[in-house]
Design brief:
The chain has 140 residues and is mainly α. 77% of the residues lie in helices and 0% in strands. The protein is built from 7 helices and no strands. The protein is elongated, with a radius of gyration of 15 Å. 22% of the residues are buried.
């Protein structure tokens, strides 16, 4: 594991754990509850920063394992799948996360509240699965 900064990766995983715990703590029980401005903004922001931490972890892994310079974020996921760091299924989930984050950041006015609410209700497990795959790789 060439120049892999395991401590930085683990610190980022701790940061991710913290964001996801916070998100689970404020997750709305209903779509009606989600629609309060504070709840909506908090969920959107926590999802955004959680995905950004995942991308940071991917960047640390790709550079630390010397998998080459990624042309773009999506290339990060391809390189990690090819190197056996994450599964192909996880690569697909990460592409979805990145797309979702891009919508939150760049197309803010068009964000569909139902999509964000559904993500909070059904997609948080993806972060845990990513965490498991990275930790399993680091233990090798």
């Amino acid at each position: 594991m060439a120049n892999l900064d395991r401590e930085r990766v683990l610190a980022k995983i701790d940061q991710l754990d913290s964001y996801i715990a916070e998100l689970k703590g404020i997750a709305p029980k209903s779509f009606g509850e989600y629609q309060t401005v504070e709840k909506k903004r908090a969920c959107e922001r926590l999802l955004q920063v959680s995905v950004e931490v995942v991308i940071d972890i991917c960047n640390l892994l790709v550079s630390g394992l010397r998998l080459g310079l990624p042309a773009e974020e999506e290339d990060l996921f391809r390189k990690l799948v090819k190197a056996g760091v994450i599964t192909k299924d996880m690569g697909g989930r990460l592409r979805e996360m990145r797309g979702f984050r891009n919508i939150l950041v760049h197309e803010y006015a068009q964000v569909d509240d139902k999509l964000v609410y559904e993500a909070v209700k059904t997609k948080l497990e993806d972060f845990g699965l990513f965490r498991q795959e990275v930790l399993a790789y680091l233990r090798q």
